[in-house]
Amino acid sequence: RLTSEERKSVERMLKTSNQMSQSLQEVAFTNKWCKKDKPFSGVWLARGTGYPIVGRFFIKQVGIDKIEGFVEQESRAKIFGKLALFPGGTQPKEKDSSRGMEWFDLTVQWSNGDLTNVGVEYNTETKESKQLQGRMNPIRTSLKFPYVHYRLIPGTSEYDEDFGNTGSLNKHMIDTKAKEVYDKLLNNIYAVSQLYENISFERLADLFGVDVKGAEALAQCLLKCGQVTGAVDQEDQMVIFEKPREALKKFNSQVREVCNLVQETYDGIVKFDPKRAAKPPKPLNADDEKVDSTKVSKMETE
């Protein structure tokens, strides 16, 4: 349960519910993706610039040299890109992996059809582009980069090209005390969603230590941030949770793994001894001997 001080903090946060939803989204994303060995993962803010480098960039480092993500919401823009130890992806004579990945480029696919190539430098004279020109600073708190923006001309499949731009993103740092409160809210709503298919605003208010109106607003914020999936039923005054299909996905994945292992084992046996290859069943013909049903019945009774 929340302490009295934390409940007061939640009440203040609910006065600006949109801001609270954004903060919950940032904390949920950070908790899931930010690791010490993945410095590019996090929420990156664009300040002092205009479109297309604007808003919150949610970036996750999904491999040693790959990044994915979105801007604000996945419906607005999707991000995918790559990382390298050195600019342009060139490898030195003596590899120095201790530096970690510093250079990057990424593509932002906007929902309106525009494209932005971040970390790409374009030479208008030679018509050549250099990739992996964006760089993370040594203390891993900012990204600086050139970028090329392609604006889709309405009603066509052609683009207006905008070259020679530079931009930057700064890693968003969440206040420690506020994060503790957000973590409690996120963990609590997740636990509730695992126990109940639905829960009334009144019961939710009791669990979180807020009034009923605050519980409804809090539920809206928690659902909006993506920690759990569900909907608010205002008529019946309750939250209805949609059970995730992760367990089914995990089971299906395990079945596929077992099937693959069986197939690999079979292939190995056949390769070693081709005579053991399975033969297709012989189709039944009219002349094939048929089973006497009376004999079968007699055997079953015995």
Give keywords.
302 residues, alpha+beta, three-stranded antiparallel beta sheet, 7 helices, disordered C terminus
Radius of gyration of CA atoms, rounded to a whole number: 29 Å
Could you list the spans in which at least 5 consecutive residues all have pLDDT below 50?
A: 288-302
What global shape is seen?
globular
Order of helices and strands: HHEEEEEEEEEEEHEHHEEHH
**Measured distance between first and last alpha carbons:** 66 Å
Task: Quickly give the structural class.
Answer: alpha+beta
Strand percentage lies at: 25-35%
Q: Mind summarizing the main beta sheet? A: 9 strands, antiparallel
Helical content, roughly? Answer: 25-40%
Number of helices: 7
Q: What's the overall average pLDDT, rounded?
A: 83
Instruction: Please provide the count of β strands.
Output: 14
Task: Describe the 3D structure.
The chain is an alpha+beta fold and 302 residues long. The strands form three sheets. Strands 1, 2, 3, 4, 5, 6, 9, 10 and 11 form a nine-stranded antiparallel sheet that branches. Strands 12-14-13 form a three-stranded antiparallel sheet. A hairpin with a 4-residue loop joins strand 2 and strand 3. Helix 2 crosses helix 5 and helix 4 packs across helix 5. It is globular and about 65 Å long. The N and C termini lie far apart (66 Å). The C terminus is likely disordered.
Layout of SSEs?
Elements: H1 4-13, H2 17-33, E1 42-46, E2 55-61, E3 66-71, E4 77-84, E5 103-110, E6 115-118, E7 121-123, E8 128-130, E9 134-136, E10 142-152, E11 159-171, H3 176-195, E12 198-200, H4 201-208, H5 212-224, E13 230-233, E14 238-241, H6 246-272, H7 293-301
